[in-house]
Amino acid sequence: MDKWGLPAGGSSAFSVLALVWGTNLFNFMDGIDGIAASESVFITAAAGTLNLMNRGDPGLTAVLFSLSAASLGFLFWNWPPARIFMGDVGSGFLGFIISACLMTTSLHGTLPIEVLPILGGVFVVDATTTLIRRVLQGDRWLEPHRTHAYQRMARRLGRHRPVTLMVVVINVDVVVSLGVCHHAVSRQRAVLRPLPRCCHWQLFRFFVGAGRPEAEAKGGNNSLMCC
Amino acid sequence: MLSGGAIAVVGYLDDRASANAISRFIVHVSAAIFFVVALGGYPATEWTNGGCQRGVAQRLVF
Questions:
Q1: d(CA A56, CA A111)
Q2: Of A12, A39, A80, B21, which has the fewest beta carbons less than 10 angstroms from its beta carbon?
Q3: Cα dihedral across residues A194, A12, B29, A101: positive or negative
Q4: What's the pLDDT tens digit per position in A38-91?
Q5: Nearest C-alpha of chain B: how many angstroms from A12?
Q6: Nearest chain A Cα to B26, which residue?
Q7: DSSP state of A144
Q8: CA distance A19 to chain B (A)
Q9: What DSSP designation does A82 have?
């Protein structure tokens, strides 16, 4: 039995599921201008910095910082109103390669696995809760939809930029929190600091009703359709 | 990179409406299995015992 009480090979099976979910996470969440690219910048920069501070594999650190720099360059053109889009090619590849890098850092022991969902908290919370809600409602969850929290918010506000900015603010919050954790001594402080980020997004998700039936989202913009 | 390349290719086909959700899912799962096998599995026991014991990682969660 391993740490999670899974039988031998259970962790590997779980990691395959996590990789598939991570790959599709970026695909689901790449629905408005700049959101996937900005999330990618923060995840890879934070993971690269932590890997560097922990004296992790230098090659992996280089890959993470390269991904961050490439995403930042892409974000310049993808910032709302976007002039270029990453499509399924970019979002699928980015989701997979980031998940693979993060998994390798946790395997090397330089980044605890519990930190990984916190780093991608906005995407993990929104996409996971929306999917669960749609499955519980009996919706055809394999079909495209536009009921993610960020899509509903963008429709309400009529623009992409405020939502992308909100995601950036939440990401900055967690990066600062992780930085504070680096210097934290007490266990309580270390555990509590990264939590606000997920709480912020949970509140937004609650208020905008992510995953509610499509009929409630009438009048929306087709460009916000999840693909 | 091979796994990531396969996912990018199926994403390209999906963008061109040449791939459906099932074929995309099959490629994603295959790529993930390939990566985990190439990694030598994911030994959570080893990670717990020896891996995450130092510096920032230790202070972040524990």
A1: 9
A2: B21
A3: positive
A4: 999 999 998 898 888 888 889 999 999 999 999 999 999 999 988 989 888 889
A5: 5
A6: A20
A7: -
A8: 6
A9: P
What does the alpha-carbon distance between residue B62 and residue B52 come to, in Å, rounded to a whole number?
10
> Cβ(A160)–Cβ(A216) under 8 Å?
no
Q: In terms of residue numbers, what domain contains B39? A: 2-61
- In chain B, the number of structural domains is 1
| Short-list A20, A57, A14, CA closest to B44 | A14
CA neighbours closer than 13 Å in the CB half-sphere of residue A156 = 15
| pTM (2 d.p.) | 0.78
Other C-beta atoms closer than 10 Å to the C-beta of A207 total 12
Q: How large is the angle between the packed helices A195-208 and A121-137, nearest 10 degrees?
A: 40
- Listed by start position, the domains of chain A span 11-224
Residues in A closer than 8 angstroms to B59, CB to CB, are 181-182, 184-185, 190
The residue type found at A225 is: M
Query: If DSSP codes are grouped into helix, strand and coil, which group holds residue A54?
Result: coil
Subunit contact A112:B10, Cβ cutoff 8 A: no
CB-based burial label for A87 (10 Å; 0-12, 13-18, 19+):
middle
Determine the Cα–Cα distance for residues A7 and A156; give it in Å rounded to an integer: 47
What is the residue whose two structure tokens read 């970026």? A26
Q: Which residues contact B25 (CB under 8 A, 6 or more apart)?
A: A20
